[in-house]
Each structure stands twice: as C-alpha cells, then as structure tokens.
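ESCALATION

Customer reports they have been waiting on this structure for their group meeting. Please prioritize. Original submission:
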Amino acid sequence: MKKISPAVLILPIMLSCMLYSPLTLGEFDFPLNKAFTIPVDGNIIEIAVADDWIAVHTYKKITAIDMDTKEILWSLDFPVISWGEGFLMNNDVLIAASPEQIMVMNKLGEKKEINLHSDVKTITRILAVSSNYLFVLGGGWVVEAYDISNNTMLWRLNVDRGMGKLFYDPLTNVAYVTTDDSLRAFDNSSGELLWEMKGVSGQGIFFDRGVLYLPAASNLENAFRFTAIDAASQEKLWEEDIVRPPNYKVFEEMIIDNLYITSGNGMLAIDTTNGERVWTTPSVGEELYTVPIKFGEAIYVQGETGAVYAISPNDGTVIGYVRLEDIGFDSAGGGVYALKDGIVFSTRNEIVVYKAKLWSICGYI
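Update from on-call: job pushed to the front of the queue and completed.
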C-alpha cells in the first residue's frame, strides 16, 4: 500500500485554516511569478488595461503608462466618477466619465469628447461600450445610446428607478435593458422596443454570446433557479435549481470556457450547456468582488483585502493566493486583468504584473 506523506495531508488543512483567518502577507502556492511593479504617484482608485498600455485613475487624475517601457505616456486632470462605473478600456481605447462629460482617449493621449444630449445634467454611470456604441445612464434615470464614430445620440429611454444592467449584442445590433422587474430588448439603431419580459429579476440577469441567464427564487432551500433563454427567439434553453452555499451573494459574473461563473462570498460554476452545477468554491473569509478572469490553467479573482486568488477551473478549489499589503477589508481598486503573458492588478500605489513561471531542468522557476 502506498504511503501518503503527512505533508500532503496537512497542506489542505493549512490552506483551509489560512483562508478562513486573516491572510498573511506574501504568496501561498500562487502559480505565477511576480514579474515587475510600477509605482504610481497617488492612491490608485481603479485601473483600465489595454494590450500594451494601462490607464490609472487616482484622485481627479488619469495617468497612462506604457507596459513595455514602464514609462508615463501622459497624464490628465479629470474627475472620474468616483464609484467605479466610469472608467473602462475597450479595444485599446479608454472611456472615462466625469459627472459632466465623457472622454474617449487612446494611448497617444488623443482625446474626443462625446456630445451628450442637452438634457443630461449628471452622468451616473457608463452602462456598456462596444467598438461603435456607448450607453450611459444620466441623471433622472435616463438611458442614452450614442454612436461613438459619428458622435451622435441614437436614442434615449426613461427607466425611472431600479435600473439594472445594459448588454449590447453587436451581432444583432440589439440592446438589452434590465430593471428591477423587467427585461427589454431594443433595436439599437432606432430605439424601437422589440420585446419585453415583465416580472423577472432584472438586476441579476447576465448576457453572453446570444444567451440571457435569468436568476429567480427557488422553492428549494439555499438554491437559485437559473433559466437560460435564446435572446433572438426568447425560447427557453434550460432551467435548473442550483444549490448554493448558505447566504451566498453574487457580485460579478463571467462566462469562462463553457462555465457560467459567479463570484461573491465564494464562487459558483454552472455548465452553460445544461444548467448543472459543476463546482462551488466555499467562502475564503472575504468577499470576492471582481470579475473572474482566466489565464493559463487558473481563474483569478480579487478579494476585498486586495488578495488575489487562483482558483482551479476543474473543481473550484483554491490553488493559492498572493497578498501584497495589509489593507484589511478596504480593498485596492482595479480588479484583475489578463495580459498576453500574465495578469495585472493594483495595490494602493503600484501596478503589479505576474507572469507564467519558467521551466528549467531544475523545475519551475
């Protein structure tokens, strides 16, 4: 009979204990190596990542940094919306919103201001952006769609209170607008209402590649009911009651491979083909508040302490983590982003890049 090393038995117990207690600083079985850091002047609120440059939002300022040379490209005084819904990258172009204006900026620092409708007095948040279109929620609960290239407004919609999310499908040119209790589809060229579902929990709806995922209450204890519908035909693809950990909350969602993954106080993975639960990651002692991303053979997500966790996409187990500073439960902003050869995230005042470990005759280095 093969003997099992005591260390093999102790390791999972140690990892479990460490994840459910305040995390120590440093790395624990993290599958990537730290490649470099870039110091930033000021506390980082959030970051936006392109292929070869990164935009950093600090207090009332945007700084662009070249990821190859690590040099500052340009900086701009700009009061970005402070609650993290007005700063994002799309096709290597930065979209930044202040309460009064929206700017489109590239790596060279070239800028274009979006001509907002005269009735927009306060920009609440950017709802979505694509190569050609920008969707904004303005003061007074008004959704507006803009053509970026022509710098014109296409349509506007009064949603009252309870605005949820907006998803745009470039293949069909349809915009899906969710509120507390509805899901509506609009022709993006004209703003014409195509169809509507009422009585659905619009706040938790997610869209990806032509499929809408709708959450609802379940009669089963500690369960969600998820329904997947074909967005074009509104036909039901599947409906399943998914058992979840007690008191599970969802903060972010993403489709990775064939898994619909939600992150919150733990993670949940559902097979997009049939709605079956594939795996669950129990709580790690803090809320996982960023959109999960995949690089290599792991899924990465950031917790509210700033720690970055590596999760196995096969069974949801925690592979390891890295925590670079002691910030308690007052997270550094920015999230985790995939690069061509690694991942990037931020601490209070540094951009941090981790890359794949190199293999030598002595093993990984």
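Sent to customer with the following note: The first strand starts at residue 26 and ends at 28.
Escalation resolved.
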